[in-house]
Amino acid sequence: MASNYSCIGAGFCGTVWALSEDGQAVKREDGGPDRSLANDYAMHRRILQSFSRLTDIKRRSGIHQTLPQVRVSECHHFISSNDQWWTKNLSLFPSQYSPCNAIVSDRIPPFAEQIRKLIVNRYCNPAIKTEILTSAANRDCLIRPYLDQMEDIGIPTEDMHRYARMMGEALATLHWLGEVDGNDIEFVLAPPPFHEEQSNTNTITNVLGRHTMWMLDFDLCRYMPMSDAGVQQAVTAFWRNDPKLWGDFREQYLMSSEEIINEYSQVDIDERLSFARDFIGLIETK
Questions:
Q1: Which InterPro entries has this protein been placed in (predicted)?
Q2: What is the domain extent for residue 258?
């Protein structure tokens, strides 16, 4: 007999559900009225293809670390509100829930209990610590990388620099391989997939244990024209995700952009390189 789905997260676009820590997650479109899981799904698939191309570019260039530095969970299929999937699975959700649009993707693994306790004890109001630690709704822990706070819990400086570089490469990949603006995306720290080999070079080990950086939430992303207007669109989107270690982010973004554009673009190479520099320049002059 199948287990019931448990809610592991909620946001403006909807709620996220899973049957277990290792497996798939279902994101329901039951949030704000102006959010679209159809767009989320289309952008998720496009971004996965972009990171696959990045891996190919790194292999052809002889770069040792061929796997993308930032992880994106596999996205399997889009479910409409009248899909037959609901006939089999609706009973696994609480009784008040009805069919709606949904996405099925691989679940991002949560941190272990001891890491959750570390974060709660460091940052949570003492009056509600016990409530948070014992709450089923708060059991599934991913960590947003607020880089200016990482040092407080013992994250080494070199790891914070690496987090910023991972973000820089990821955004360059979205812009120049996916032609996506990256609007309102989330970066989170979380363990790698349970089945992954320990030797994967994209993982980091520190006070948070073995983990990597993941990127998620693509419902507000839009196609980015290869034009001055597209650059401005990306600049506007960026201010929702401003990393603190700007120097590392800037250097990696420009380096990855140059590598991607020179290797992948068939036309307008010089113009796209100029757009990448304009993106950085416009942010720095804001």
A1: Znf_prot_DUF3669 (IPR022137)
A2: 36-73+108-285
